[in-house]
Amino acid sequence: MKVVIDTNVLLSAALRDRLPERVVLYVATHDDCKWLVTPEILREYTDVLTRPKFALRAETLQQWAEVLICEQ
Questions:
Q1: Is 3:34 a contact under the CB 8 Å cutoff?
Q2: If DSSP codes are grouped into helix, strand and coil, which group holds residue 69?
């Protein structure tokens, strides 16, 4: 299955650390799913996650950076 993850879903996963995170990590770790990520989408993910208004901790940003790097 090919999947494009909306930026808001990714942001919810980073902020809430519950169901959205499980969905994103499921897609990222199961061979039957192919997470479609273009350089533009990756840039948008990064831009949104690093916005000061979300105040994500450096550790959280690093964890999500590692997930995103694996999807390139």
A1: yes
A2: helix
Under DSSP, is residue 71 helix (H, G, I), strand (E, B) or coil? coil
The larger pLDDT score, comparing residue 35 to residue 72, is at 35
Tell me how far apart the 2 most distant CA atoms of the chain are, in Å.
Answer: 35
Q: How far apart are the first and last CA of the chain?
A: 17
CA 55/CA 72 separation, integer angstroms: 25
Q: Comparing C-alpha atoms, which of 51, 65, 14, 29 is closest to residue 6? A: 14
Q: What is the pLDDT of residues 8-34, one digit of tens each?
A: 988 988 887 667 778 888 888 888 988
| Alpha-carbon span 63 to 37, nearest angstrom | 17
Run of H or E residues at 48? helix 39-49
